[in-house]
Every structure is written in structure tokens, then in C-alpha cells.
Amino acid sequence: MTVEPTPRKRLRLRVTAAAETAIRSGHPWVYADSVREANRPGALGELAVVYDRQDRFLALGLFDPESPLRLRVLHAGKPQTIDEAWWEARLRAAIGRRAGLFDERTTGHRWIYGESDGWPGLVLDRYGETLVLKLYTAAWLPRLNEVVDLIRRVLAPRRVVLRLSRNTQATAAKEFALTEGTVLYGPSVDGPVEFLESGLRFEADVIRGQKTGFFLDQRENRRLVESLAKGRDVLNAFSFSGGFSLYAVRGGAKSVTDLDISAHALESAQRNFALNKNDPSVAQCPHRAIQADAFEWLGQQPQRRFDLVILDPPSLAKRESERAGAIQAYGKLAEGALKILRPSGFLVAASCSAHVSTEEFFETVRQAARRSARKCEVIQTTGHPPDHAAAFAEARYLKCVYLRLE
User: Fold this and answer.
1) Which regions of the chain are under pLDDT 50?
2) How far does the chain reach from its first CA to its final CA, in angstroms?
């Protein structure tokens, strides 16, 4: 990585008392309105040091002069030398946290989960020999070459693909000539890349697909659905590329129905089923597709009944102002699903909306169950999988609840 300026030239910040407290408690963000003083203007991606009211070192992080989230903390506590060895040790620490989690049957997973792994605003996902590097802050752009060189040296991928959050795309294009889906290293991508998850084959659209190409965070819930599916008619609402459906089929489902508004998503699911056609359970299980809005389809109270319904919608609250509407929508979905469940059936309801808390979501689903007047019990709740372990509140978005009807 780039050698940093000497401490006397380094950008020095002082922050509010509340921000000092937050940093000491481990929070990795400093907002612009929390910065009280800077010794000079800072540049994008520069390392800035925060000093407390007694002029003691407090933290060090990546600076973005244009972002409301002005500093992303890399390290807090005692001063450290930030050199090439430090960066490599941080990458190897993230990899080490995942040691033993995956074998050769799972080649799709997360290597780095942003702030929770000490790489604020940066995600690194693996799809076989392809790695996808997604940036949620422009502060990494000046360091991108060094980051990719480090990843290549430590992980030796065949290729590295860049994905950019919307808030970084303009800066990336204007100042660094980088666009969404740029291949930073290795051969070009001429279509979806394949990877394994629990022995099942999937494709990932690493150039244009949602997130980094696949919903890796639902792996553990897919495995649980597999354990519940035997002999059941399964509805996978918001089915996307059919991940839950394939696990249900391998678990012995009687039939599986994908429900999604996107023809592109349903076609992707068909391709994933084709990738696994040599599995006898996949070849034998009826697999149907319905292209429709899940809210409307469930609201029409269809005559078909199922033994297992999976609700995994996209984020319904991307900002705080959408929270109340999202809670209402989750309740509506759960009510519709419960109406088409047979006795002894299972409802699996998930939320990836960070602005809806775990407690709010679970209570919303429980209230929907009470309104349905059908007796049911919560048999399990889940959160983030181990390769997506969240170290602070804002990083916790995924929650899932399992209900069983009597």
C-alpha cells in the first residue's frame, strides 16, 4: 500500500464529545457535522487522525471531504504504523475469521464484510476463482490499485471485478475512469460465473447482478429450508434466481413454485436448475414459475395451497423515512402467506431492511399470525451467517423467522 505522509503533515481532526464517545465504544463512522476542527483541507482517501480533547490519539481513518460520512475509522486505540505489513495483516485477519467455515463444496462466500472486518466501506466476495470487490465509499478509489495488488498476492484469484455503490459511481467515472463492472484484473467476463454452495451449482452475474451477483448472505437459511422441505409443496416468493428452491428440491420437496415479478430472475432460476440437472432430486421434482407481483398475487388469495412458503423480499426500507411503510408491507406479506399455508405448514419470512429492527420485524410477523387466527409457533430465528458477522448496529440488516402452523 502507499506510504503515508509523516505525522506532522497528516490531516488532524477534532470531533464532538459525542463522537469521541462513539469512537471509543467501537463505532466506525464520524459524520461531517461531528468534525469540530481540521488542521487543513483533506483529500479523498487520505488517512486522517482524530485527537481527543486532551490532544491524545483517538483513531485513524479514511477521509472523504464530500461525504456526509466524513471519516471511516480503520483503527482506534493506541497509535499504529500503517504500512504494507499492516494492510496485509488486516486482510489475513479477515480471511482467518472464515477459517474452517467452507470446504470444496462451497466456493461462494464473503471474504471481507466492510467495517466489521476492519475494511470500512469495502466488501470482497468470492465466486469460485472470481472475486468481486464492491466499494461503498469513494475513499478507497485512490488506493484501489494497491488494494487489488494485495488481494492478488494473498488470495491469487483468476480475476477481480469492481462493483460500485450508487454514491461512488460519479466520482469513480470522473476522477478515476472506472465504471460499474470493470474487470480490475484477469480475463474479461463473457457471462455469469459459476460457483458451488453446499454442493449445488449456481451462477452469479458479477457484472450487473444484485449485490455482488448473488445473495450469499442467505446460505444458512437455504440450508434450513432444505431440512424442512421433505414431502412438501413449496412456494418461493421473491424467488430471484431460485436459491431457496434448489435447496428445497434437494431436501425432498414434492413440488417447488418460484414467484417473482422479474422474467430475468425466473430465467436465471431455470438456468440454475439446469446446472443441477444431474441431481436425481432436481430431475424428478416439478418446478413451476409464476411471473407476478408477489404482493398482488398473495393478496388475491389464490386457490393453491402450500406446505412451506418462503418470503424473501428485497429491502423494503432503504431509508428511515420508509420504515413505517416497510413494517406494514411485511405484515401484509405474512398475512397473505399464512392464508395459503396448509395445516402443519411452515412460513419462513426474511427481511434485509436495515432500517427495520430485528424486534420490529419479528413482532410484525407475529402480529400477522395473530390476525390470521391460525395457531402457530415460532420455531427458530436467525440473523447473519458467520462470513457476514456484523460488528456494529448499522451493519445488522438480515433477520429471518420460522413459524409452524398447528
Assistant:
1) 3, 5-7
2) 59
